Automatic annotation (TrEMBL):
Organism: Crucibulum laeve
Pfam families to which the protein is assigned, alphabetical: p450
Keywords: Heme, Iron, Membrane, Metal-binding, Monooxygenase, Oxidoreductase, Transmembrane, Transmembrane helix
Family designation: Belongs to the cytochrome P450 family.
MF term (GO), any: iron ion binding
Name this protein carries in UniProt: Cytochrome P450
Annotated transmembrane regions: 29-47
PROSITE patterns xref list: CYTOCHROME_P450
Cofactor(s) of this protein: heme
Amino acid sequence: MAVKLPPILSRLTSYTHAHLRIAFLGQEIQINLMSVFVTLLAVFVVSRVMKLMKGIRDTNYIPGLRVPFQPLAFPGALIPTTWWNPGMYFMWKWRSWMYKRYGENVSIVPFISGVPGIFTSNLDVARQVSAGGHKSAFVKPQTASRALLLWGMNLVAADGEQWRKHRRIMGPAFSNKLYQQVWIETAETYREMISAERWADKKVVDIPVIQTLTFKLALLIIGRCGFGFSFDWSAPPTAPDGSMSVQEALRVVADSYMISTMTPKWVQNLPFKKLQTIKTAHDQLMAFMQEQVIERKADIRSRSSGKTAKTGGASDAFTMLVEANEEESGKFQLDDEELIGNVFIMLFAGHETTAHTLAATLGFLGLYQDIQDEVVQQIIDVVGWDREPTYEDYGKLDKVLAVFYEALRMFPAGYILIREATEDTVITVPNPPGQEGSTTIPIPKGVQVMVDMVGVQYNPRYFDEPEKYKPSRWYGVTNESEAFSAFSIGPRACIGRKFATTEAVCFLTLLLRDWGVKSVLRDGETKEQWRNRVLDANIVLTLGVTDVPATFTRRERPT
């Protein structure tokens, strides 16, 4: 006979059984969740191993780096360069050992995210993948041009037939007429700088950061010769009516380019003073440039009909670009957004390159006085102590050009060229130095080949003692020579090359004739230690040099 429990004990027993069942069920759920997690982890690991093996196969088993993320894409580009993540700076920081260990072509295969690629420091490979043309199997991927499209499609971002259309219009704007104007405006800006900075009565000037001068110089020259604006060294940041001046808007936009391209629109609209200043500058400059396009088109049409135009046949690049565009018709004509996009890419890429390279040049010359003395002697031989240098002197000042070239070689502004295979193809890779012949490497569709311009400029195949600052490499080399590759190579080489070198040669000629440049070393510091401490790379839109200090001492002129 069953024993009947009291009601209280019966309820307690039922509760205990239910609690045990729930506890058991919870344990079962925990066990199931753990099984799911382990299964998902195993699937993830297997998928990453398969991705890694496919990437190694697609890059033809070329030796190289096996990393979590593609170094130039999110999130790898945001993580500092470390032993496990190449990051944005690996081409600079690892330049002394990476190609020595793996050869001139290095595969980088990510196993978590990103496409596999081959990084090359070989110019023959670079020419094969960057030549372009309708027969080329390589194109610039859209992801590589995203940061260049803030103001509209342009020559640097375009590819294929679209690039040829932009090049057809841009070419006529870069002429001797423009370069003569660059020389004149650079000389005038140099004199303004001396006056505005109150150097006229000083014998010694300490410059904590040379870029504060060179960026302002480059911005003013771009403003005057690129846009045709009457910018002034000491102009206030506000217009007479209290609004932001065009010159100040141009400076703000140039300084904040990466914020504008890398942050979402909703972030840029947040009510923070800096973000609002950037937005105001961007909106004001865009509206102003749209008005300028309309005005210049009207002026050009007035000239063609025999009427008096406001610009009076201006020689700035913007006007000549609009003029060349007006002479075209149909499919070759650029729209207003493309016109503005081309002028602005010249501003951002051009003024960064010139400013940083001038700073690096003066840093090297301050360190190596013997090279500086040699350059100054040529300046005196060509121009003398008192004559005003002219554009006609440009070709005779090859040593001045050479010191700028060598600084750009060591800090190549366009540090990477990215191309992606649109179909299964091959590249021909020269064998290592000392070995005859070449090797053919299959490149499957979708694989990227990246030309590491830092690697190219430090490749001992092309330069003896590549880590050494030796401007003599470029003595006698013409401005158009392909021996100098830091402005890129082939038909897509930098269209603003002579714009930049004309500005640089004029400025350096005037500055070095008047002032001696000296680097200030710390107590007990060697030249090599100073160089390693100060002359380091800084990557934004382009590769430049970190802040460079110097002391300028007025030269004693012979009586």
